[in-house]
Amino acid sequence: MLNIKALRHSYDGQMTITYPDWTVEKGNHAIILGNSGSGKTTLLHLIGGLMAPKEGILKVAGEDLSAKSNAKLDRFRGENIGIVFQKPHLVRSLTVKENLYLSQYLSHKQTDSKRVDEVLSRLGIEELANRKVHQISQGQAQRVSIARAVINSPKLLLADEPTASLDDDNCKKVIDLLKSQAEETGATLIVATHDHRVKNEFKNQLAL
């Protein structure tokens, strides 16, 4: 699913980040560990096709993302990759359900209300379906963010610092939730975090 080799990235000529070679097999659950500033979020964004690497090889599902045009990259990401950002980035003027419909639309998929209802139910937030984003709590918004990431049954599920602000109990619940959602769709799961509480939850680890 993921193959990284001799990967390097820098921002506007600043310090270059060099990443270790790394492979994550299809359906595997993996973790990127590192302190703030180590480049783990940057790596996650590179894997998600949100930015292009300066040097090296980065292939997702056998595809070289840097070789794709912006339009083809957008389509590939919409069809294959789901991302849970550190901050939810939901559209506040829309309801929870409408945010999921929007995700389907942007991925060039037909609106599937049955799939939306199913995902909301599995995440235990079906009662939030018709609430506007500003009417839900931070914890609820995080679950909606997970719902949006998995709504299109992605092949690759990425999560950036999903447990950073959570207590131990909710930390475990969110990791279990991400794993279960990935397993239900056969997705590969990669989590980037500095939270060592979740380290032992993953066999495949990349330390930065």
Task: Tell me what the structure shows.
This protein is an alpha/beta fold and 208 residues long. It has a single domain (21-33, 70-202), classed as Rossmann fold. Helix content is 34%, strand content 22%. The strands form two sheets. Strands 1, 2, 3, 5 and 6 form a five-stranded antiparallel sheet that branches. It has a five-stranded parallel sheet with strand order 7-8-9-4-10, sandwiched between helices. The protein is globular and about 45 Å long. The mean pLDDT is 90.
Task: Give a short summary of the structure.
The chain is α/β, with parallel strands linked by helices and 208 residues long. The chain has a single domain, classed as P-loop containing nucleotide triphosphate hydrolases (Rossmann fold), CATH 3.40.50.300. It is built from six helices and ten strands.
Terminal CA distance reads 20 Å
**Helix segment tally:** 6
Mean pLDDT: 90
How many strands, which pairing sense, and closed or not: the largest β-sheet?
5 strands, antiparallel
Principal-axes shape call:
globular
User: What is the ordering of alpha helices and beta strands?
Assistant: EEEEHEEHEHHHEHEE
Whole-angstrom Rg: 17 Å
The low-confidence runs, each spanning 5 or more residues with pLDDT under 50, are none
Q: Bin the helical content.
A: 25-40%
Find the structural class using helix and strand composition.
Answer: alpha/beta
Supply the CATH class.
Alpha Beta
| CATH level-4 homologous superfamily | P-loop containing nucleotide triphosphate hydrolases
Counted up, domains total 1
Q: Please give the CATH architecture.
A: 3-Layer(aba) Sandwich
